[in-house]
Amino acid sequence: MSTLLEVSGVSVTFDGFRAINNLSFQIGPAEMRAIIGPNGAGKTTFMDIVTGKTRPDEGRVLWGEKSQSLTRMSEAKIAQAGIGRKFQRPTVFEDQSVFDNLAMALRKPRGPLAVLWYRPARADAERVHELAAEIGLSDQLSRKSGELSHGQKQWLEIGMLLAQEPRLLLVDEPAAGMTHEEREHTTALLVEAAKTRAVVVVEHDMEFVRRLNCKVTVLHEGAVLAEGSLDHVTANQQVIDVYLGR
Ligand code: ADP
């Protein structure tokens, strides 16, 4: 299988503390992966490295068919290269409609100022409807985003990221604070998204991870402790010890 992102031998030290320790990780172009691990394992730092927010002290982060190095690229350039990140809290333009949020996300550059120069174009409208169908918000297009439920806001933000057509989507705890039904919808949405791009989900909720039905990477002390199916990794004695704090 070809590799979309290859992280190899990466280490990061904060004030003498090794948060990421010789970490290696690979993901293919249309692969779903869950990353789990106890608090402090290095999950957030890992995503910060991939998105260029944190620079590794050692190691390589290579992207795409041409194995382009990401370690010196700016966060903006990395985003443009096709890596999207969704943080835990949804950041949508609350005063704008669902339609306008999606339409704005189609326009680059993205950011708080996008609202000032945004003018909808006809071609955008078609794509907005496609995106809305993908995230299950077709019947909410004219609603103000601020009026959406927590789950709907999360889907809208995923839709806004998909509008940018990332080849890799990093998603931080998508199921947090969701109802049972919302979780199911989120699972379906992410599984669908992973058919045409790589999706990495950091998640604490094991039931949610089970539903994703994908390979799982367990991080501990900044390195990969185990990798494989959820059943495989949760049967690993070292993983059990780490989760029980032994
Ligand atoms: P996780 O997301 O798995 O909970 P993090 O990546 O947030 O773990 O953190 C890994 C370790 O690195 C933790 O011990 C954390 O305290 C430490 N750490 C993360 N960011 C910084 C920072 N900017 N300065 C100092 N220590 C940090």
From TrEMBL:
<dbReference type="GO" id="GO:0005524">
    <property type="term" value="F:ATP binding"/>
</dbReference>
<protein>
    <submittedName>
        <fullName>Urea ABC transporter ATP-binding protein UrtD</fullName>
    </submittedName>
</protein>
<dbReference type="InterPro" id="IPR051120">
    <property type="entry name" value="ABC_AA/LPS_Transport"/>
</dbReference>
<keyword id="KW-0067">ATP-binding</keyword>
<keyword id="KW-0813">Transport</keyword>
<dbReference type="InterPro" id="IPR027417">
    <property type="entry name" value="P-loop_NTPase"/>
</dbReference>
<keyword id="KW-0547">Nucleotide-binding</keyword>
<dbReference type="Pfam" id="PF00005">
    <property type="entry name" value="ABC_tran"/>
</dbReference>
<dbReference type="InterPro" id="IPR003439">
    <property type="entry name" value="ABC_transporter-like_ATP-bd"/>
</dbReference>
<dbReference type="InterPro" id="IPR017781">
    <property type="entry name" value="ABC_transptr_urea_ATP-bd_UrtD"/>
</dbReference>
<feature type="domain" description="ABC transporter">
    <location>
        <begin position="5"/>
        <end position="246"/>
    </location>
</feature>
<dbReference type="InterPro" id="IPR003593">
    <property type="entry name" value="AAA+_ATPase"/>
</dbReference>
